[in-house]
């Protein structure tokens, strides 16, 4: 079995690109007949390729978690993505009583002329973050805010 287009899978702008790639490769390799060979057209030093060669998904998961802890990405931390018109996102953030230590990351451009802000908190503050955003969205709804804001907690796509 030959696994091609490795870069197409590994370089996707997705927080789970590495783990999804390993899952797909392991599923494909499991279909190889006993005594068959699996050839991966990729750099053998890449961690995802090493996990496949070793057939060691727990090692890959532990490495991925350590990297996410270092970067402050889920599941080591909790993030919320707020996407909408710049004024609407600013209004929601002004209305929200975010937990202490919340970090605002952004804004970054989003599709259709919108912007995206990320709010990052420690895992211990995940319930407080969800509650603050829920209440702020409720206040905006009660005020009949004209522009919506999409709220996603721990989105897979952070870009």
From TrEMBL:
Keyword Lyase annotated: no
UniProt keyword annotations, A-Z: ATP-binding, DNA-binding, Nucleotide-binding
Entry superkingdom: Bacteria
GO biological process: DNA recombination; DNA replication initiation; double-strand break repair
Claim: Calcium is one of the keywords in the record: no
GO terms for MF: 3'-5' DNA helicase activity; ATP binding; DNA binding
PANTHER family: PRIMOSOMAL PROTEIN N
The protein, known as: Primosomal protein N C-terminal domain-containing protein
Species per Swiss-Prot/TrEMBL record: Phytohabitans suffuscus
């Amino acid at each position: 079995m030959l696994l091609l287009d490795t870069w197409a899978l590994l370089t996707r702008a997705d927080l789970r690109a590495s783990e999804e790639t390993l899952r797909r490769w392991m599923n494909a390799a499991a279909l190889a007949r006993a005594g068959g060979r699996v050839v991966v057209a990729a750099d053998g030093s890449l961690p995802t390729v090493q996990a496949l060669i070793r057939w060691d998904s727990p090692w890959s998961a532990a490495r991925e978690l350590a990297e996410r802890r270092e970067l402050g990405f889920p599941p080591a931390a909790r993030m919320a993505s707020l996407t909408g018109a710049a004024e609407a996102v600013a209004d929601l953030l002004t209305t929200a009583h975010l937990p202490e230590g919340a970090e605002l990351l952004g804004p970054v451009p989003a599709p259709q002329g919108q912007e995206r802000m990320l709010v990052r908190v420690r895992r211990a503050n995940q319930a407080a973050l969800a509650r603050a955003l829920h209440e702020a969205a409720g206040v905006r709804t009660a005020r009949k805010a004209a522009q919506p804001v999409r709220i996603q907690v721990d989105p897979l796509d952070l870009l």
